């Protein structure tokens, strides 16, 4: 699709190249929380709170697309409304282009409304049925008191053609358009003031599959043409797969994994990410065999009013041990470009190798996880752990000759380096020799590592199922 070039002389509108240069941080979120109070009784006393967003940190870089995925109710829309300041955060900080906008009032936010726009999920209810599309798309100009060069009508018609609509339909009403066309009207309205950041909340989930692809491609084209930065919220990974540069996986108000798209698809580290990915249908019949590796999650997402202790995913995770129920894992960069909040990550060295006794919840959850998936998980973790051990041993060896004949302290350091390597022994070893004493033995985790005797088979980390798609940009 050809998209007309953006007119560069629109009076009063910011040019997209202004502000943060490509790759620089445009939006920064620190410890962001939104707790909706639950009130009861005549006096409307607060008796609890829905912890919709419960302490999240991330950055959005200029020119990139950050995909945000997670099951229904995990706080994605609330997060979107917080960063566009449609909601007031309970705690935390939102910075846009280095400026703290967390508690800006209506007046303070007015100039920012040009720079940050939102596209809503439902193209049916987000457009006023009594207004013509001309009125709808021109509303931002009127609200901001902006008079584009050539007049508002001309600019609105230009915007309509930018999003692939007929400019002659300026005077038509929303009901005269199809779902996909209405979403295009919503996109035209969002683009009216040349925003820097566009937050799209489930922009295609209300549309037919064939139309979804058109709208996703339109968003992608517009990004390239206009240098937009996107946060795209979706409930599954298939929508954000082709457009995102990085993907944040949310669960119960927290970010579980935040990674470059290719890394996430090639080797997801959080068990929840892996489960979400295995739920994406595989259209290629030749890869139907992967079906047996589907991971089914047990039960529903727990209530955000009283989320589980420790790691919030532990009640549905097949790898959960005691530490998962008691200690919340921090979101840590385990690989460059891949942050994960997990004590027992997939495709990586175990972060709590001493903790091997599975929780009873985990044993139940493991019954829903295909044997192949469990075996693969153990194999890849073992392979990564072995790799880490080899690298550390090599480093210790390289240090050793230098230490020879030198100070005693240096010798001791080398020695302690070796010890720490030993203590970081791969999980599978420790899991295999895990307590056999009683019913709380490692259960399915043990079973899975048993299958993983050939820890050397690294290629399993890159099963056909997890091949990253070629980015369509
Ligand atoms: N205004 C509100 N008052 C009280 N609770 C709310 C409010 N808005 C959202 N919630 C609750 O916060 C939690 C997160 O909701 P949110 O809509 O952000 O999730 P989501 O991941 O976007 O889900 P979905 O994909 O279904 O829209 C849910 O439990 C929801 O019921």
UniProtKB/TrEMBL annotation:
One Gene Ontology MF term: ATP binding
Ranges of compositional bias, category Low complexity: 451-461
Keywords, comma-separated and alphabetical: ATP-binding, Nucleotide-binding, Transport
Keyword Methyltransferase: no
All residue ranges annotated as the ABC transporter domain in the record: 27-277
Stretch list, region Disordered: 393-473
One Pfam assignment: ABC_tran
CDD domains the UniProt entry points to: ABC_NikE_OppD_transporters (cd03257)
Protein name: Dipeptide ABC transporter ATP-binding protein
Organism per entry: Streptomyces rochei
């Amino acid at each position: 699709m050809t998209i007309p070039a953006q007119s560069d002389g629109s009076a009063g509108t910011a040019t997209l190249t202004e502000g943060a240069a490509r790759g620089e941080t445009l939006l920064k979120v620190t410890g962001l929380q939104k707790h909706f109070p639950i009130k009861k009784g005549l006096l409307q006393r607060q008796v609890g709170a829905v912890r919709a967003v419960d302490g999240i940190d991330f950055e959005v870089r200029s020119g990139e697309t950050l995909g945000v995925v997670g099951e229904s109710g995990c706080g994605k829309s609330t997060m979107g409304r917080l960063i566009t300041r449609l909601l007031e955060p309970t705690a935390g900080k939102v910075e846009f282009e280095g400026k703290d906008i967390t508690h800006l009032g209506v007046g303070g936010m007015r100039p920012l409304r040009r720079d940050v726009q939102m596209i809503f999920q439902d193209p049916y209810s987000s457009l006023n049925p009594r207004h013509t599309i001309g009125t709808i798309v021109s509303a931002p100009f009127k609200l901001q008191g902006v008079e584009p060069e050539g007049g508002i009508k001309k600019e609105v018609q230009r915007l309509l053609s930018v999003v692939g609509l007929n400019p002659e339909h300026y005077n038509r009403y929303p009901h005269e358009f199809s779902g996909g066309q209405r979403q295009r009207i919503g996109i035209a309205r969002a683009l009216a003031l040349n925003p820097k950041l566009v937050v799209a909340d489930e922009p295609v989930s209300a549309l037919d599959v064939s139309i979804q692809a058109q709208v996703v491609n339109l968003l992608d084209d517009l990004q390239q043409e206009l240098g937009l930065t996107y946060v795209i919220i979706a409930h599954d990974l298939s929508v954000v797969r082709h457009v995102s540069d990085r993907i944040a996986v949310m669960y119960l108000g927290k970010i579980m994994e935040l990674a470059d798209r290719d890394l996430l698809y090639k080797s997801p580290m959080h068990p929840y990410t892996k489960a979400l990915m295995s739920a994406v249908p595989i259209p290629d019949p030749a890869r139907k065999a992967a079906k047996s590796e589907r991971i089914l999650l047990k039960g529903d997402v727990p209530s955000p009013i009283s989320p589980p202790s420790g790691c919030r995913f532990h009640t549905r995770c097949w790898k959960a041990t005691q530490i998962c129920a008691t200690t919340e894992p921090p979101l840590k960069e385990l690989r460059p470009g891949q942050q994960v909040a997990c004590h027992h990550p997939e495709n990586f060295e175990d972060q709590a190798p001493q903790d091997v006794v599975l929780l009873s919840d985990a044993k139940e959850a493991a019954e829903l996880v295909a044997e192949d998936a469990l075996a693969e998980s153990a194999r890849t973790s073992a392979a990564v752990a072995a790799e880490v051990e080899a690298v550390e041993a090599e480093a210790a060896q390289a240090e050793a000759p230098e230490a020879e004949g030198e100070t005693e302290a240096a010798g001791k350091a080398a020695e302690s380096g070796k010890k720490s390597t030993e203590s970081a022994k791969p999980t599978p070893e420790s899991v295999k020799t895990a307590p056999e004493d009683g019913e709380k033995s490692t259960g399915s985790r043990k079973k899975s590592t048993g299958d993983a005797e050939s820890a050397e088979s690294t290629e399993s980390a890159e099963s056909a199922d997890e091949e990253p798609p070629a980015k369509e940009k």
